[in-house]
Amino acid sequence: MVKICCIGAGYVGGPTMAVIALKCPSIEVVVVDISVPRITAWNSDTLPIYEPGLDEVVKQCRGKNLFFSTDVEKHVSEADIIFVSVNTPTKTRGLGAGKAADLTYWESAARMIADVSKSDKIVVEKSTVPVKTAEAIEKILTHNSKGIKYQILSNPEFLAEGTAIKDLFNPDRVLIGGRETPDGQKAVKALKDVYAHWVPEDRIICSNLWSAELSKLAANAFLAQRISSVNAMSALCEATGANVAEVSHAIGTDTRIGSKFLNSSVGFGGSCFQKDILNLVYICECNGLTEVANYWKQVIKVNDYQKNRFVNRIVSSMFNTVSRKKIAVLGFAFKKDTSDTRETPAIDVCKGLLGDNARLSIYDPLVTEDQIQRDLSMNKFDWDHPIHLQPMSPTSVKEVSIVWDVYEATKDAHGVCILTEWDEFKTLDFQRIYANMQKPAFVFDGRNVVDVEKLREIGFIVYSIGKPLDSWLKDMPAVA
Ligand SMILES: NC(=O)c1ccc[n+]([C@@H]2O[C@H](COP(=O)([O-])OP(=O)(O)OC[C@H]3O[C@@H](n4cnc5c(N)ncnc54)[C@H](O)[C@@H]3O)[C@@H](O)[C@H]2O)c1
Hints:
By secondary structure, the protein is an alpha/beta fold. The protein folds into two domains: 3-199, Rossmann fold, CATH 3.40.50.720; 220-473, 3-Layer(aba) Sandwich (Rossmann fold), CATH 3.40.50. Helices cover 41% and strands 13% of the residues. It contains 17 helices and 14 strands. It has helices spanning 13-23, 36-42, 54-61, 72-78, 104-116, 133-143, 164-169, 182-195, 209-240, 244-252, 273-286, 290-317, 345-355, 369-377, 406-410, 430-435, 452-458, and strands spanning 3-7, 28-32, 66-69, 81-84, 121-125, 150-154, 174-178, 204-208, 326-330, 359-363, 400-402, 415-418, 442-445, 461-464. The strands form three sheets. Strands 3-2-1-4-5-6 form a six-stranded parallel β-sheet, with helices on both faces. A six-stranded parallel β-sheet has the order 11-10-9-12-13-14, with helices on both faces. A two-stranded parallel sheet has the order 7-8. Strand 5, helix 6 (133-143) and strand 6 form a beta-alpha-beta unit. It starts with a strand and ends in a 16-residue tail after the last strand. Bound molecules: nicotinamide-adenine-dinucleotide. Nicotinamide-adenine-dinucleotide is lined by residues 7-13, 33-35, 38, 72, 85-88, 105, 108-109, 127-128, 157, 159, 161, 271-272, 386.
């Protein structure tokens, strides 16, 4: 029986391994992690992450050919194929701070593999890493090899949170990069055989190692660039009276452009886009490609601009001050159908409003109070370290209350900000919300989910990104 071990039981390691176990009953899959609470949660009825469909997959194979364990060394030493899916945060100090990927966790995983291995291994990069990481890992392993042979493969993960199980069941493609040597190609074939249990062969792309590593950074940069492009257009739409939804539809019907990923919003978030672009920028700079680095940097700058612009719209609409005013924040996760808040635009918007002395009442159907308080007190990039190594939030932000009901959040509020596109926000009783708010009552829709005209009929002053402006907002400055 082939044995797989995955180091890192997070958003990537957990779901990908659960699907491999489900689709390959003849393979034993063990997911290991240094975090005891995470593994305990994977072994319980309340999994540590929420993904539609994940519970069912885990329940079907846990205890049969899928196991979660903290006995990292035992399972690594027994495995034939080791996936490494640990954190690769942005460095916060030293060389490359603020841009380069911090490979501390990756390197310690590689050293541990070298220490405990007693048989040949295929080591698979599942984490998103800088180009040429495989070379560094190879050096660590071969310099400590004790005669054991290692093959390093790059198999970046393209799943999107919120649709991870669907994406894993039916991926657009699986990418496997390996050394162009007979042993390298044998390892590529071994991993290909795993995916071939359910992924059609023409969707399994094989390449050299560096192309595979770079493709992951390139894919995320292209996706984020599309969002920044449409968000840049949204600012121009507001200035000219065009409607960004109509512009997106019009350009999206061009088959060369395509309709996906053209929704304008308060900005992109999630653990990957910003981190991976910064990483790409750093690699470009290290290779002397300043123009290329500056081009990609702009994608992040536009994203920051969009969040600032949103906060400025709120403050300038409300008589240039939100001091002591209650603002209801609906949605905190970085997108719907996930409880993940890593780099969610809600953090920057809330911090912006708190900076102007607002009082916030936050509602999200999945994100816990503890998580929101941690996010609002944590420094940039600290979130991407294993949870037990993150700084504890010393105090909670007292101007923030977290509630479990939209109507309580909006009661007596001056304004409502929608920051996640949860489906339930489309069917809220806005008449009831309006009746219980201070007047004038404002709605700032950062996800274009509300029916603007209907809300204006109720009496709200509505700002919806990239849509023709309410007369109230027309003469107010909103440039960041
Ligand atoms: N989240 C996504 O949507 C996504 C998608 C594609 C790729 N990625 C990449 O995958 C990697 C993992 O991301 P994630 O979202 O799963 O992160 P995560 O923080 O959810 O999980 C990482 C896990 O690794 C564990 N870990 C760290 N060092 C370890 C070690 N030495 N031994 C054992 N366990 C260790 C941590 O405790 C944590 O549970 C990152 O490189 C990320 O960029 C993420």
